[in-house]
């Protein structure tokens, strides 16, 4: 471990160094490093130390990292996954498909195979022959929720059916992709002048889950005026 740096207890790929109100953070992913901080002298010292021990290439200011694009302006910073979303749409084969206006169809009730057998309904809604196709798609959608909180509820709901996905689940997941196709460059905008305060809102309905009759809740989180989750 680098001298003076502490490994985060919550993320073992994160290393932090603090000194007299100054801070430098290193994020490590395989052979990619992201270095941020509020003091350029500490950042440059760290780069020099790393160069002495490892073969490194400084790519300059952050603009792309792990599929996330970082766009800066005087108003703030936009984080999006435009290329990731476009690749997803192309790989799924929906480049020429019609867009969807919402992630999920209104009032659609998705159920498990076990529930269908108990209530003897949706007998024509068959299991997918290859469930890994559905699982891979949901996994890619989960990664996209880092910058697309508008699809988080739909993706979380669809991830409940990973073990035994049916045709209706696959169609619903493809609808999410068609919704993304409408605005693939949407992302999270962090305003340059913002309040450093987290504000959360939550809501829940009443017994809307068709299988358990439990409530379904939702939430959103703002950092100042910026919607982040």
From TrEMBL:
Domain Reverse transcriptase Ty1/copia-type: 4-105
Alphabetized InterPro entries for the sequence: DNA/RNA_pol_sf (IPR043502), RVT_2 (IPR013103)
Superkingdom: Eukaryota
PANTHER family noted in UniProt: GAG-POL-RELATED RETROTRANSPOSON (PTHR11439), PTHR11439:SF511
Name the record gives this protein: Reverse transcriptase Ty1/copia-type domain-containing protein
């Amino acid at each position: 471990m680098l001298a003076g740096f502490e490994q985060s207890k919550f993320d073992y790929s994160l290393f932090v160094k603090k000194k007299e109100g100054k801070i430098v953070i290193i994020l490590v992913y395989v052979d990619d490093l992201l270095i941020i901080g509020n003091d350029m002298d500490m950042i440059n010292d760290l780069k020099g130390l790393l160069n002495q021990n490892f073969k490194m290439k400084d790519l300059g200011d952050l603009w792309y990292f792990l599929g996330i694009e970082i766009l800066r302006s005087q108003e703030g910073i936009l984080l999006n996954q435009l290329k990731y979303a476009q690749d997803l749409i192309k790989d799924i084969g929906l480049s020429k498909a019609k867009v969807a206006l919402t992630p999920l169809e209104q009032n659609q009730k998705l159920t498990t195979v076990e529930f269908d057998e108990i209530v003897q309904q949706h007998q024509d809604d068959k299991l997918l022959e290859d469930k890994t196709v559905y699982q891979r798609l949901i996994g890619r959608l989960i990664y996209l929720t880092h910058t697309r909180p508008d699809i988080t509820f739909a993706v979380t709901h669809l991830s409940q059916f990973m073990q035994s996905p049916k045709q209706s689940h696959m169609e619903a997941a493809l609808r999410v992709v068609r919704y993304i196709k409408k605005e693939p460059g949407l992302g999270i905008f962090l305003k340059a002048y913002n309040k450093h305060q987290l504000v959360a809102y939550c809501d829940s309905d009443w017994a809307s889950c068709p299988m358990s009759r439990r409530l379904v809740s939702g939430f959103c989180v703002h950092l100042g005026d910026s919607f982040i989750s």
